[in-house]
Amino acid sequence: MDNLNNPKKITIKINGQVKTFKDGTLVDSKPAAAAEPEESFDWILPEEDEESERKVPEIKKPKPGFFSFGNGWITPNKKKPIVFLQTYLIPIICAVIIGTSLGFIVLKTIAGTATTSGTQPYERETVPTEKSGKMADTGKEKKAAAAVTEIKTYLVQGGIFTTKEAAAEIQQQVAEKNVPAEIFKQDDQFVLYLGASNTLEESKKLAVFLKTFGVDVFWKEVNIKSGANEKEQKILGDMVPVYQQLTQDSSAQLLGSDSKLNQEKIDKQLASLKTEVKNASSASLSDAYNQLTAAAELHRQYQSSQEKTQLLQTQDKLLMFLQNYQK
């Protein structure tokens, strides 16, 4: 009960003074009695200083590197200069050098093979310029004529036989049908030829035409080699263009084409060869010339008569020219 009527006092110590409060009113203030020193501590707050503020550096993750040809591994922190020649041209240059080297080796190999395999036979296809009287004395024509050792022509074949007698029997049967037929010895066989032309396609057409006479035919390319000496080969080489012109025109006319032969030119070419053939004193050379002259005359007669028998005879004379060329 006394406590209800006697409110409590509050005593506090402020700056070394003991103060007593009652009902919120200061009622007493006196110095504090000496006592044991009390433990105390002071709060020290740092002063705000903008200069003392430290910024925490931002940690960035390193970017992934990449590999560059000629520069190795490149990272963002340690970049190497990318040189255009290194990155693009070096592989191209290497490829060009390697390819050129391989190509040179292959070329040398092919050239060596071609050299060891021998030279290709000369084929005279051009017609010499017109000559009046004596032949033009040009070094190129003489060299070309002397180089002729064989003629490449396209013939219609009538059969291949192991003996000349068997070939002669078929030759007679074919000749009775007014079809040209001449026997050639090739290696160890005897071949019967029925016609001549200047291209493989034309020889095929000529074979189809001759088949209408009831004979067996086959067309192919044939190389007729010459057995003449160097002097005779030169004269034979000058005959070859005449043979080619007569062969082309006679086979074309047998197939229904118009003549494109310059007969006057053929006559001049044969006339220029006459003296040389006579001076050569060779039987096979003389026979070859005579067969070629006879073929030219038969071809001339056909232009007036238009009888195909004369064209067939022209073809036969041309085959006989090849026979003498082969001797």
From TrEMBL:
User: Where in this chain does the record put each SPOR domain?
Assistant: 148-222
Keywords (A to Z) from UniProt: Membrane, Transmembrane, Transmembrane helix
Membrane-spanning parts: 88-107
Q: Which GO terms describe its molecular function?
A: peptidoglycan binding
- Composition-biased stretches, type Acidic residues, lie in 36-51
- For bias type Basic and acidic residues, the affected ranges are 122-138
**Which residues lie within the region annotated Disordered?**
32-57, 116-138
Q: What name does UniProt use for this protein?
A: SPOR domain-containing protein
Origin species:
Peribacillus psychrosaccharolyticus
